[in-house]
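residues and backbone:
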Amino acid sequence: MAGVNACIKYSMFFFNFIFWLCGSVILGVAIWVRVSKDAVKQVGDVNIEEFYIAVNILIAVGAIIMVLGFLGCCGAIKESRCMLLLFFIGLLLILAIQITAGVLGAVYKSQVESTLMEKYKQFLPLENQPKEFKEELEALQRELKCCGLVYGHQDWADPPASCNCNQNNSSACVSVKNRQIWAKPCITVLTNIFKDNLVIIVGIAFGLAVVEIFGLVFSMILYCQIKNK
């Protein structure tokens, strides 16, 4: 009977070590995206956390990938058919979930700006909002260096101190009644944050999918060789 090809065996081990590292990276990046700008996830009744569905999926995927990478390494070194079969099935499921997460990320990337715009328009004019809402918004303006929600400083009858721009002679500022005010509305800054984060997540998801396909091929080849040994 034919033996196990040493090149395939150690290639499988090396692949799974890289796969484990990739799982660590995707888990770390997804967690970073999830917790970054934590203070601005909700303003008034607008819950921005709904755009983190793809990120939440990838957190789980990253953790499982790390376990599968370890399982694949052990299966290759010990020539365990059981471990390799579990690795193959788990990796196939992860690939399907990962593609779903990538598609969700691409869909939300195109919808985030229009969704935020429609929700935030409901809060204009800002002077009519409760004190708690305005305090939250002012904290957001100081954090993101923006002014107003949708149309910039025009959303305020009298822009508060949190709108003051501290960058002299900068294109980020606009002159309003002898004051320097942040030019960008907060919706623009928020949209850019989400789009940048989703580009990272989608890129990692589809990039890692290519690596996973090679893992499926290697694991099945090694499984068949061990079976025929």
